[in-house]
Amino acid sequence: MTKEYISIHKLCESYQIPNSFFQELQEFDLIPVYKEAEEPMIEASAIPQVEKIMRLHFDLNINLEGIDVIINLLQQIETLQEEITQLKRRLSLYE
What does pTM read for this prediction? Predict the structure, then answer.
């Protein structure tokens, strides 16, 4: 399975945001940026995450430190929900 990558420059043009936004996202480890190509790129699968971060930052004026906390909390919630689902399945075997 090959991964698709998208140029950060194209994303910035498409979303009308500065290039520095992606540099800041990388500094906070919110998205991985790949620099092996001629220009920095991100995986296409990361676009929904980028859009979520953009909404939090630009629409709700949340700084990147706050976004980092929010993203981590959302990941913890998702992990806990998966664990609850697994436990419910195991419990249903005993009913």
Answer: 0.80
